Amino acid sequence: MSCSDIQRLPESLTRLHNLQTLKLMNSKMLLELPRGLKVMKNLCFLEIESFRSLLCTPPGLGDLIYLRELSIFIVGRDASHQIDQLKELNLGGSLSIGGLENVSNTKDAKKANLMTKNHLTSLGLLWTDGDEETHSTEYYEELLQGLQPHHNLEAIHIESYQGSKFPNWMSALTLKNLKKVSLESCRICEHLPPLGKLPSITDLDLHEMDSLKYLDDERYVNGEIPFPLLTTLSISDMPNLEEFGRGNSVENFTCLKKIKIRWCPKLLGLPFLPTLRSLDISGSISATLLGSLRFLTSLTSLYLSDIPELAAFPEGFLQNNNALEKLRIDSLAITTLSNVLDNLSALKVLYLCDCNHLEFLPEGLKNLGSLETLEIFDCDGLRLFPAATMEHLSSLRSLIIVNCKKLKPLSGPMTQTTALQDLELIALPELKDLPESMQLFSALEQLDIWGCEGLCSLPDWLGSLESLISLFLSNCKNLSSLSDGFKTPESLMRLDIVGCPELEKRCKKPEGEYWPKISHIDTINIGGKFVQNIKNIVVTKNIL
Q1: Is the pLDDT assigned to residue 543 strictly greater than 50?
Q2: What are the residue ranges of helices labelled H in 102-201?
Q3: Which of these ranges, 433-442, 454-463, 480-489, 511-520, has the smallest mean pLDDT?
Q4: Half-sphere exposure of 25 (CA within 13 A, CB side)
Q5: Whole-model pTM?
Q6: φ, ψ (nearest 5 deg) of residue 376
Q7: Which of 128, 265, 312, 350 is most buried when burial is the number of CB atoms within 10 A of its CB?
Q8: Terminal-residue alpha carbon distance, the chain
Q9: Using alpha carbons only, what angle is made at residue 523 by residues 517 and 524, rounded to the nearest 5 degrees?
């Protein structure tokens, strides 16, 4: 019963006494399960992937003695919803326990018997955020201590824990198989458990750890390497985080390949990370953090977005990052990209979005000989994209320009052909005519023009695009005519004209005056009505 908007399952479901598996994956609206679920004695697997909307779990789940997988158990205040319902269940797979603030006696935590559930691979321990007003830090610490899992555990998620320290079972000796750790809204913890000494950890996700200053402040001896297998790190909403590590003489994070940083305003910089490939930074950050990127010489993907303080990139930014292949810049107040692109000889994808103060593309764009995809979205200040720039982008295969209110794309002359295959021009009010430079786009296979209301006619020379396979014209309300000498390219196999009312009328079959000019195309879509011409059908019989 997955992927539905159902909110409550009917009680009649409990009549299915032989049911063994009930899956409710991606049911984000689900509020309640049948209260009589405990009578389904043969139930083995109850899988609920998206359980955040669930108000409670049914009473008496401890009666389902054959249950082997229970995605979520929510502790309630009465006896039939207490944590001891988990005691006799031999659960495996993934289990999240919510409503932990309803455990009235911290000693009852041990009644969940998590230490004996050696088939559990993933465990979530969830309090209700904001509950710290009704419980002391000692309550949290004693309760979490009693929820010690089996050492086979591979993933743990702890949310809204308001103790000041983590239990001693979160150590290398106890959780030697732990691979993934997620800590969220643990707001008063100033120190993490010794995660750097966990031998198997590969993924670390930290969110809203308000008091944390260092990711790792442990001491290492006898050749110990901190975080020996960590490959993915995500840190967000950490207002006091200053450094990754403190006082360590050995290298940290030697296998780290991917980092995501969001809203860490005091983070001073990144350490030397020789294996880092992907970096995603957003929200408030320090200038020194951005400056430290020049030392990340192995970086292949960089995404910068929504950084309110950033009006200009620091001197020397990305000058040493000649392995960078993908650069995405989104929602920044920068006015120039000067000197940013000069040394990015390996760059294959450049994405610019919502940079409204950027008026011109930099000269350094010409140095991007490996660039294959260029996408420009919502850059209202951008005025010019010279066609001559295309002559230097010898590897460019896809150019997409969307909703740039002042931009006149591909203006000016061009002297040589390009390798461009896909061109999309969308919501460009200054586009009055297709630029003549496009005649040299001999490799162009797909041309999409959407929402360009200033465009009134298609030129004669469009027929010279000898590789064009697909032409899509959409919501160009003033596009009404084809020039007298207009011919569609012989290579054209599909033509779509949608939301261009006058042109649609003149291209309709069979009465439209332009129909003879387009009737030979294999697939034609005029206003949502398709015409297909089936050609060259060869029927061969008696072939086994």
Answers
A1: no
A2: 137-146
A3: 480-489
A4: 3
A5: 0.89
A6: -125, 115
A7: 350
A8: 44
A9: 55
